[in-house]
Amino acid sequence: MFTKSVEAITRADLEDLLEIRAAENIRLEFKREAPARDELLKKLSGMANTFGGYLIVGASADSSDGRIAGLPGVSPIPGYRQQTVQWCYDGVFPPLDVEVSDPIAIDESGGKVGYVMRVPESDRAPHFINGRKGVWIRTDEYSQQFEPRLATLHELEHLLSKREVVVQRRKDLVDRAHQRFMSLASQEGVGSETGRAGMGASLQLSIVPRYPNKHVCEQLPLYDHLQRSGVPWRQRRFPRLQGRPISQHESVIIASPLDRFSSLEVSIWGLHHYAVEIEGAADQDVAAGIHLNRFLGDVLVFLEHARHTIGWSGLTGPLLVEISLRGVRGVPWIHFSHGFADTGPSSVLDDDILLVVQSSTEELTVDRDAIARRAFRSIFMAMNWEI
Predict the structure, then answer these.
(1) Which of 53, 196, 211, 386 is deepest in the core (most CB within 10 A)?
(2) Cis omega (within 30 of 0) on the bond before 126?
(3) What is the CB neighbour count within 10 angstroms for residue 135?
């Protein structure tokens, strides 16, 4: 049973446990009835914080030695999988990854069923139960009753050290995308639209899982998806394809997906990195600077493209939107509030600005503009412009 996905587990697999008189252990627990919400979250988060494990609902255990005693089953619970997944998303931080089987018929009539849940050992630990209900781990330190209990300070420190690996991975993914953008700029000999040597003011917007602990897709399907898919933008398509995408370690990159120097990188870890030169040259009607309307359009199309691609990949959970503005000191905003180009303020002291907006895949899917509003508010305040 433990080599299968939970969707493939059958009644015969549960009967095998009964035949060998399997015993509860640090990675396996039997429950006669479906646990209430708080009890279930304690058990599943405790497993995730320890070594991962399986919870089987509809199986009874002998109280003396924890061995499976029978398969009485439970009455089918409508929407039990969705309910459990939602509890693990809303009631635990970071949310738990949990797999829940379909109802498994226990008797011939189908009147009683069992459910199997699996949570992997988590490298996003510690998982806290919301509402100040603590961090739970699974232990047999004091008895053979494998019950969850609150973690000690030492155990919390151990769990946090595991999480540091994932946090460092997130930083490394964003840093690598930035380095690739700069490498692409040097190879293409990019010069500023303003006539200066090198690139002018630039925007880099990264949408990355807060805890990138697993691949969300494979690289080849991602490569094919980015070539086929896109979002409507200015009577065209974003990203614009001027050739085949670039395949690099763990990522697919599209050079100049906009109508000026820019790049798009999507990683199998769920990173979406968009970069573009935002400083425009002067012409007879408009001064040099950051053209507000074009900037707003860039950010919105980036968020919209990420929304579609994240939906395709199936990624769920908390996101960070990291906004990096480089080379912006003294570069004014150009806006058109009265129908004519006006020169607005600029960053007086800071040349490089880094901002972070917290969000989630759910918010990006249903309310993209809420993320955009928070991002724009932070950007304008950071660049000396309260509008």
Answers:
(1) 53
(2) yes
(3) 20
Distance CA 48, CA 37 (A): 16
Measuring CA to CA, how many Å separate 139 from each of 21, 27, 166, 343? 21, 10, 25, 65
Q: What is the pLDDT of residues 324-370, one digit of tens each?
A: 999 999 999 998 877 777 888 999 999 999 999 999 898 999 999 99
Q: Under a CB-based contact definition with an 8 Å cutoff, are residues 277 and 260 in contact?
A: yes
**Assigned token pair, 352:** 């490089």
Do residue 290 and residue 364 come from a single domain? yes
Residue 270 lies in domain:
164-382
Q: Which three-class secondary structure state does DSSP give residue 8?
A: helix
Do 116 and 59 lie in a common domain? yes
Is 86 in the same domain as 168? Answer: no
Number of domains in the chain: 2
Domain CATH for 54: 3.30.950.30
> Which ranges in 80-204 belong to alpha helices (H)?
80-90, 153-187
Query: Which amino acid would we find at residue 129?
Result: I
Q: Are residues 75 and 18 in the same domain?
A: yes
304 and 326 in a single domain? The answer is yes
Alpha-carbon separation of residue 88 from 114, 145, 234, 328 (angstroms) = 19, 24, 41, 42
Q: Does 387 map to a domain?
A: no
Measuring CA to CA, how many Å separate 64 from each of 14, 23, 67?
Answer: 21, 11, 8
The number of CA neighbours under 13 Å toward the Cβ of 15 is 7
1 domain residue, yes or no? no
176 shares a domain with 147: no
* 175, 227: one domain: yes
Indicate the pTM of the whole model: 0.72
Asked whether 130 and 136 are in contact (CB, 8 A), the reply is no
Whether 38 and 132 have beta carbons less than 8 Å apart is answered as: no
Give the residues of the chain that fall short of pLDDT 50: 141-145
Q: Is 135 within 8 Å of 49 (Cβ atoms)?
A: yes
Phi first, then psi: what are they for 78, rounded to 5°? -60, 130
The residue type found at 364 is L
**Which residue shows structure tokens 């039990």?**
80
